[in-house]
Amino acid sequence: MAISQRLKLKQSQSLVMTPQLQQAIKLLQLSNIELAAFVEEQLESNPLLERGTGDENRRGEEAAQTSPDSDYSEMELSTSDAAASDAIDAPDHAMDSEASYAETNPPAPAADVGGTVDWSKSSSAGGSFNSSGDYDAAANTAAELTLQDALTEQFAMTAPDMTERLIGANLIDHVDENGYLQASVLDIAMRLGVDIDRVEQVLLLMQTFDPIGVMARDLRECLALQLKERGQLCPSMEALLDNLRLLAGHDLGKLAKCCNVSRDTLNEMIQSIKKLSPKPGLRYGSSASAVVEPDIFVREKPNGGWAVELNSDTLPRVLVNSRYYAEVCALTSDEQTRTFMSECQANASWLVKSLDQRARTILKVASELVKQQDGFFAYGIDHMRPLNLKQIADAIEMHESTVSRVTSNKYMATPRGTFELKYFFTAAIPAIGGAPMHSAETVRHKIKILISEEVVTNVLSDDKIVDLLRAQGIDIARRTVAKYRESMGVQSSVERRRQLKAGS
Q1: What is the pLDDT of residues 20-57, one digit of tens each?
Q2: Angle CA(419)–CA(421)–CA(426) in degrees, nearest 5?
Q3: Between residues 378 and 96, which one has the greater pLDDT?
Q4: Is there a contact between 102 and 38 (Cβ–Cβ < 8 Å)?
Q5: Are 161 and 250 in the same domain?
Q6: At the N or C end, where does the chain have fewer CB atoms within 10 A?
Q7: Does residue 142 sit within a domain?
Q8: What count of other Cβ atoms lies within 10 Å of the Cβ of residue 371?
Q9: Based on the domain organization, do 224 and 251 belong to the same domain?
């Protein structure tokens, strides 16, 4: 067959990942903190975007009803923008909204976006969650003196010379929040170009600072410093500190031989060890802990069922200044300026619509999660159902990847606590006799309950746990029990038996 060139027309459809579409997809998977930072960047770079408040939004809406020349208004999406929004599973009505969650005070949950859900009856004993706007996470975070600040203040009172100040500052910089020195004395001496003995002298001085035990290089040294301060650091106690591994394994017989003491004396020594602080630095505050602010509130309705609401405090509010855009375009004939303002207008409009779409999508996914896991909210973890992304995606007619993005780094505050949305997706464990399958999280909970009820005369092996679970209709393998037990940080039956004997 001869090879020849020819022209051919072909009609096809394809999805083009425009920058706007990439931005919309990115917004879905951002946490509320990351979203706030992203919006701040957009406010700084786009002159048509302004930060909005509830009062400004209401005034803008009233002005829009009385005057066609209102300062703040929504921009219409172009045909290509609307097509791109469909590509990320956004419902059509989400892009037709005249005002977004970013521009208006989010109202009470509306039925058209699944804001209020009312399914099966609820009889949970937990009280309803208070989702009022009075909660301020930052206000509930106390500013504390950090360990580094405390060490610096004490070190300044010793009036060292300039070289010792430099050594002390480097030592403090390498102390973690637990109070342990995370750099070797040799490394610090070589870095500063000083004698190692001088660094040791400064370190010994700082190991006398409050709280006793800070600046230690390991757990043994930390405990030894505290015992020395109490006058309890005898040769037998030093032998115990040299064999902390045996103490952790509750091998008290071998430990008593290493310390050359009786079991009664060893028990007294262990009690002295228990009174010490293995992490003395935690007495002081570190950097402010990251506070999880929920994206969704779930509260029990008085007549039964559950109401699902967005947390309005985590939703950024931005406005598009249409009047400023019109004034600039009217006063200039420069084509480059007009082009820049048009791009700013399109980007601002897309951002507002994307924020609205993000809020609606999160609410839709969260509402379906609550519907699917209604038994958990009503009766507890024993009634959690196996669930995967596909089930949610099929129920709300979205793609699995969209559901995955929405549930990443999003949290739900419920009467039973605050959970990440991904917590409600659990694997399925087969049931015996063709009964409905069990949630992996429920099985973990059952294993934890069985182990917590152990006594020294009846410590359950993994095989015994398998038998007990099968008696409850759960078809599970021994290796699965071992995996779940290890994931919860529970030791083997041998270690648990030693702990129970030591505590009895």
Answers
A1: 677 778 888 888 888 888 888 888 888 888 887 655 54
A2: 95
A3: 378
A4: no
A5: yes
A6: N
A7: no
A8: 19
A9: yes
